[in-house]
Amino acid sequence: MAGPPVIIWEREVERLLHYGELVPRLEAALGKFSRRDSAEVIQPVRSTVPLQKHSGFMGLMPTYMENDGVLCTKFVCFYSRQEGSTLPGTQATVVLLDPEYGNVKAVMDGDVITGMRTAAVSAISAKLLMRPGAEVLAILGTGAQALSHYNVFTEMFPFKEVRVWSRSRQRAERFCQSVGGPVKICLSAEEAVRGADAIVTVTKCKEPVLFGQWVKPGAHVAAVGACRPNWRELDDVLMKGAVVYVDSREGAMAEAGDVILSGAEVFAELGDVINGTKPAHREKTTVFKSLGMGVEDAVSAQLVFDQWKANASKL
Question: Among 8, 87, 214, 306, which one has the highest count of C-beta atoms within 10 angstroms of its own C-beta?
Answer without folding.
Answer: 8
